[in-house]
Every structure is written in structure tokens, then in C-alpha cells.
Task: structure prediction
Amino acid sequence: MYKIVSVLVSLLILLLLETCGNDALQKTKTGLDKASISRGKQLFQQYRCVQCHGDDGTSGFADLSKTGEKYSIQEVKTWIANPSSMKPGASMPAFNMLQDEQVSDLAQFVISLGE
Ligand code: HEC
Result:
């Protein structure tokens, strides 16, 4: 009897671990990291991207909903850190004071707008 219970308990623990693992690595349909997108969304408010791109990223001077169709994630990161290196004379200020991980989160958020 004790053996059966311990086998059942082990199975239950395995099942729980499996579920947690999936949660931690949730991806959108194009393979973006959901946790990174939600951090990016917060940074988008915090660093005032919203002032020029709108609360949802699609309603300011520059609509970002098609950005993911034009650029790779690396290119979007370059845009954010140094816009004039992507487009000479671009009117967006450079956000080169951000950590690489923050730029990555912002880029994942921007690209997710097109999904
Ligand atoms: C002062 C206004 C302003 C702020 C603040 C700003 N942007 Fe921009 N951004 C622009 C403008 C204007 C463009 C279009 C530039 C152009 O084409 O010359 C642009 C373009 C972009 C692009 C390229 C879009 C495309 O499809 O070509 C990305 C990506 C972007 N911004 C992300 C961000 C993020 C992320 C932040 C916050 C960290 C931010 N922007 C803050 C004004 C701003």
C-alpha cells in the first residue's frame, strides 16, 4: 500500500514540475517569449515610448504594428538603441542608456504588436 502511495505522489510531483516548466517558457505563436513581452510592455510605459507611439504602440507619430514584418529582432534592438544607425536623420531619440536585456524586452514587445 505504502509503495502505491509513494508512486502516486511521485507522479503528481512530476506532473506539477511539468506544468511549471511550461509556464516559465511560454511562447507566442511566432516564438516570442511571453515573459519578455510583458516586461517590455512595462518598459514601454516607463521610458515614455508611449508619448510618441501611443499607449498601445500603434497610435502615436509612428505605428509600430508593422515593425515586426519589416525588421528582425536584432534590427528592432538596433532601432531602439540607436535609431539614426538604422535611418539617418530619424527623429526618435537614442535609448542607448538601456541594458541589453531591457532593449531585448522592448523589441519583443514591439514585434508582438503585429501578431
Ligand atoms: C520623441 C518621440 C519618440 C520616443 C520617445 C520614442 N520614439 Fe520610437 N520612433 C519615433 C519616430 C518619430 C519614429 C519614426 C522615425 C522615422 O521613421 O524617422 C520612431 C520609430 C521607432 C521604431 C521603428 C519603427 C518602424 O517600423 O520603422 C521603433 C522600433 C521604435 N520607434 C521604438 C521605440 C521604443 C521602444 C521607444 C521607447 C524606448 C521609442 N520608440 C521612443 C519617435 C519616438
Q: What stands out?
A: Residues 27-112 form a domain with the Immunoglobulin-like fold (CATH 2.60.40.420).
